[in-house]
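Our collaborator T.R. sent over the components below with a one-line note: 'Predict the complex.' Nothing else. No constraints on interfaces, no templates requested, no preferences about which chain binds where. So this is a plain run: every listed entity goes in together, and whatever single assembly comes back becomes the starting point for the next discussion.
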Amino acid sequence: MIFRELGLAIWISFKTSGLAALIASLLAVPAALFLAGRDFRGKRLVLLVNQTWMAAPTVVIGLLFYSLLGRGGPLGRLGLLYTQTAMTIGQVFLVLPLILGFSYTALRQVDRRARTTALTLGATRRQAGWVVLREARFALLTAVLAGFARAISEIGIAMMLGGNIRHATRNITTSIALEAAKGDFRGAAVLGAILLAITLGTNLLVQTGLPGKRGD
Amino acid sequence: MGGDLYRLEEVRFAHPFPKTSFALEIDLLRLEAGATLALVGPNGAGKSTLLMILAFLARPGRGRLVYRGGNPWASESDLVAARREAVLVTHHPYLFKGTVGENLAFGLKLRKVPETDWPRRVGAALDLVELQGRERADVRALSAGQVQRTALARAIVLKPRVLLLDEPTAALDAALGLRIEAVLGELGRQAGTTVVFSTHDFSQANRLGDDIFYLSEGRKVEYSHVNCFSGTAATDGRLSWIEPKPGIRIVFPGERRGHVTCVVDPARVAVRPANGPPAEAGTNVFGGRITRMDLIGPASALLRVSGDLTFRATVPMEEVSAKGLSLSKAVLLEFKPESVEVGHD
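Returned assembly:
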């Protein structure tokens, strides 16, 4: 029974955070490609806002979406509060600036010569964009995995938007909080170790496990 | 030789962001099909920017660029078609991750060249740049010179109508540089490829170029107006000099030996009355009389000053009147050693 609950919490964590990292990546990577390839007035402001947003505490994002999705909020009638969808939405906004920032740096490092080279060799704009993404693929994957690691280890959003509902929105971090609150420090420590193992595994994948990453 | 392949009229280009004072201002540049044009000028003169424009990678803010009778920016498809004809190899080329062969196949794939033709064409291009048999080499294992040659082969393999090269032999040793020069000469003469290349090396420009386009601060300077002197360099380790006439030295920084060509941009030559205060120590100073004054543009004049050596200097009009510069007036010419561009012969 305990194992079933534990397995479910892990599954919910993976599902909501994985989906959040995926959705955020689909938004952030094209945006980073746009930002890295162009200089325009206001770009520094965009990057500054992104950097500030990156440092936003999870509870602040949780609070923001709580007020939006709560019964009295503008999106209250969607009935999303205390669902896995709400957790995913909140986590998308948590990890979006992180993935955007990392992707931007990765794409800047590939540098504009890659794009210019592709264009002069006859690529269309779209093909040149793909070339840049391909050149930065390992660094971009690192950005996505870093986003996932951030999402899976946060608690503020999961607690405020998910509500820690058993078998529905209880994930690893909210389970840890609950176990600790109950005084079951052993259970909390086991869950904490599992969470650490997941983030460690993700980081190991980022650091060393990616094929062909060395020397890139 | 055909008609004009390129025609640039009143072309103005300024880097849009970040804003800089630099601008490229080309009143007229015509380039015939099959010609080889050398772009010469100091660093920052606008050579690379002009190459980017000729490769249709930068669009002039004002003016007209006509390529093969049309506007390459008329539509996205026109632009891609024009780019596929004019391939640029930059000074610091970028090689895509992977192998040398994959890099060379990149453009062939985009042009939908049948895959069965790739090995023959790739092999032939690598032969030309003396990288035969290196198709499978990882680009990360290449030296700077090999990177440069791979990039050149990657352009040559496409058999472009126009080959644009930014300092193509800068990263190569002298022998290999000459070999690449021979390849470029061959491409120009036999394959009818139009070649535009930038260089610091005046003798290379003279050897390869049918025409020389001298750029200074973004503008074309008549090559005949450039102060150009040759001689055997002597050095004290810190400074070097040539003596175009016995006892008359042109001094420049660094340690140089052998036969060199020194070029001094007329814009960097200061003119002052002969009875003025002494010049700063270490400056090149020459005396002479003004033997010619031409108006070049609305606000400046080109002066020819003849003395032990003949120099040309561009002077703003207000300075002409303020200093009372007129024909036959005795003047001193000054320029810093750092203003001398030195090329090896």
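Summary for T.R.: The first strand of chain B starts at residue 4 and ends at 14.
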